[in-house]
Amino acid sequence: MVTLELLEAGDCEQPEYFVNGRRTLGKLRFPALVARVGHPALGTILFDCGYGPALLESRSWAARAYRRILPFHLSTSSLGTADAVFLSHFHPDHIGGLRDMPGLPIWHSRAGLAELRALGSFAQAHNAFFPELLPLDFASRGRAIEDCQRVALDADWAPFDVAYDLAGDGTLRAIPLPGHALGQFGLLCHVDGEDVFLIADAAWVLENVTRLALPAPPGRLAIADYTAYTETLRKLRELKTRRPALWMIPSHCEKTIAAYVQRPSPVIGPSEYEKRFAEFNVLGMGLDEARARAQAEKGDGPHGAYSFGLSTGSSGAPGVFITNGEERKTWAKAFVSRTIGWRNVLGLRAALLLRHDNRLYAKQRLRLRYFSLERPLEDWAEDLERYAPTVLAGPPSALERVGTLVKLRPRILLAGGEAMAPGDSAALENLFGVKPRQVYQAKEGFLAAENERGFLEWNEDLVALQRMFVRGDDSRFVPVITDLRRSTQRYARYRMDDVLRQVDGEIVAVEGRLQDVLYARERLVFPDEVFTALGVRDFELEQFDGNRFVLRGNGDTVRLEELLGAPVERGSLRDRPLWEKRRRVRRAFDPESEWIVTHWLREPCR
Ligand SMILES: [Zn+2]
Questions:
Q1: d(CA 118, CA 279)
Q2: What's the 191 CA to ligand 1 centre distance in angstroms?
Q3: Least crowded by CB within 10 Å, which of 332, 371, 386, 582?
Q4: 181 Cα–ligand 1 center, Å
Q5: How far away, in angstroms, is 108 Cα from ligand 1 center?
């Protein structure tokens, strides 16, 4: 599958009148587009490389004149690593970054370059071609687009009829777009079932195409062949009129670039994500293999650049997360600063109670020990007591059992991985002498941590949050997350399986999994409502298909039956293994919570 990501490498401003002939004194911002095109065989290809320092540093009179007439800004963000560069044409705002990309093959128009090279220096300057921007070894790295397989385009693309097939599989096709500059090519990308036509400077803004709004005479001066330019625009307009939904992206059209970047992509839920797991990691690895790797790695660190970790998994097989070293460092820094605090790191002894060990938790220059919840508590409780951790972290139910057996006085107590009921926090504080702080971390990432004011503070810098509110309930929502940092494994518009509660915009609790929401007649019953009705902490309530509810343990069934609108059977509490997540309320049917997802959640919003 081909992927496409749009970036900017610097920008400049242009009078709108020059760009589209509109009689205004306004200016338009001209971002210099760089598109990162990912192809399974060719790797990452940069479509153009924007402005670069070489254009600022060039002492040639032509470059100096250009800087005076068309001042620009460089961007400070990185374009990332790539395997090749594709040049749409040779203007400095498209090739300026070339000298900072040593060794990469460079696709370009052979004919266009030959024509430019044949010009005298004045004509080269007039064509905004500055040979000093090309790397010295350009000749050995150049790959002529014209050498790729020439293919006929079908009627979908009329009036365009020929293209050069870069990969030989029809997913990346270079199409000549003459006029604006010598040897200009656009790139037609078939991205995830959708076509995107990168049209370079065949138009500066999309309205050059849609309204055939032509540049005013001063703007025309920058155009190599005005007749060919308008002819190309007319062809683009014909195509766009016939296929209005086609993404046609000019390299400097801020609006179109923003519209593409912000286009709503479908929300993907956990089960679909698992099915398509290979699409979302750089290794292209399926879930079964990743899980096998994680199981093999267990406890002794990664066998290579990537680490495979297992999440506890509240039902079924455990989830997997793949990370690289850089991502683990980011995690560790964020985690320490938001839960422990750097000032507490000195002399720190941390103990983590976890079901599965993972590289994510190993070393990171802290004194840190891991205690496996899969081993009986009696086997390691004394050891933990001797270790006397200053920071203790684990699921609240395991912490509670540990605290009843051994006496520990950590300075910081972190609870995560399970929903907490009213009273859980007080019980932990009672056992450890310190109030626990909630951490919302899952295989999807480190999402939030409890702040000084007792609210769950979302890690906005790591993960973007959208909320799917429950219909008729402005306090409960299901998070939709987009990871902003990780590249090894991607989460974009991914719907979590959790229900969170907020009050006045502050997140107050992770109430539970969607699977913990009960279906009572025509409405949903949330765990907090059950806690309130029962008034105890020691119970398990399970709903079996339809209207059968079983309450194990204590609690007042009269109020519960009122809440559920159905009779409740009684049972006795079972012994739960230490590693098993405590889920006091759960539904034993509709495992993917389809009824809630399709009927009870609103569209995601910020
Ligand atoms: Zn140009």
A1: 46
A2: 24
A3: 386
A4: 6
A5: 14
